[in-house]
């Protein structure tokens, strides 16, 4: 099921419970194609003495999904759920990004920037954090920083349509 230009040697396979996990660099997915979120250690491996914390990963995932649900009804409760996910799993990149977006939407720009930067420390190529940082720069009136950040995103994802649009708009 790999694209024609990919060799099976470019991915690694592992088994977790009864699931086959396929890994390619920083992405992991199930054999049915479902992408797995990064609620584990940055390397994806755990030392044997931390096996007991697997339940924490599940709790972090539950907190994250609760945050997603709460965004519809209570922004503050959603923020709390995302903070809980981060407390339980400091490598939970989607929680940093979503919490940053909520802080950004409600005007806490410095907090949002800090959260996006924390996500990028975990994964320097995290596309949503890169895009949101560029938008944040625009919101702060810093066109030069926005231009640099959109350009940085395009080095990671040359086909990112929104980044091309925003970059062209800023140049115009």
Could you tell me the number of beta strands? 4
CA gyration radius, whole angstroms: 18 Å
In DSSP terms (H or I, runs of 4 or more residues), the helix count works out at 7
The share of residues in extended strands comes to: 5-15%
Query: Which structural class is indicated by helix and strand composition?
Result: alpha+beta
Helix content: 55-70%
Write the element-wise H/E pattern from the N-terminal end onward.
EEEEHHHHHHH
Low-pLDDT parts are 40-54
Give the N-to-C terminal Cα separation.
Answer: 42 Å
* Biggest pleated sheet: 4 strands, antiparallel
Q: Tell the overall outline.
A: flat
Question: Mind sketching the topology for me?
Answer:
Blueprint: E1 12-16, E2 19-24, E3 27-30, E4 35-36, H1 54-70, H2 75-88, H3 93-105, H4 109-122, H5 127-139, H6 143-156, H7 161-171
Antiparallel strand pairs: 1-2, 2-3, 3-4
